[in-house]
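Whiteboard transcription, Tuesday session. T.W. wrote the C-alpha cells on the left side:
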C-alpha cells in the first residue's frame, strides 16, 4: 500500500477512528524505538573458547604463493 492509498483510507475515517489510528501510530513508534536499544551490554570475552586458531594461522597461504 502506498502512502497516498494509506492517506486516502485514513481521510475516509470518522474523527473518533482517526484518533485511534493516531494512538496506534504512537504505539508503533515506541515499539520501534525499543528495538533499537540493546537488550543488555555485551560482555568482553564472552565468546572465549568458541573459536580455535590454527598454529599456522599467520603463515602465507599456498594459493597466494605466486603473488608473494
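and on the right, the sequence the group agreed on:
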Amino acid at each position: 500500500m502506498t502512502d497516498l492509498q494509506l492517506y486516502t483510507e485514513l481521510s475516509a475515517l470518522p474523527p473518533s477512528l482517526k484518533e485511534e489510528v493516531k494512538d496506534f501510530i504512537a504505539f508503533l513508534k515506541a515499539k520501534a524505538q525499543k528495538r533499537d536499544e540493546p537488550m543488555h551490554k555485551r560482555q568482553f570475552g564472552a565468546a572465549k573458547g568458541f573459536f580455535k586458531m590454527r598454529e599456522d594461522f599467520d603463515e602465507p597461504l599456498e594459493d597466494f604463493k605466486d603473488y608473494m
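Someone added at the bottom: Residues 15-36 form the longest helix (22 residues).
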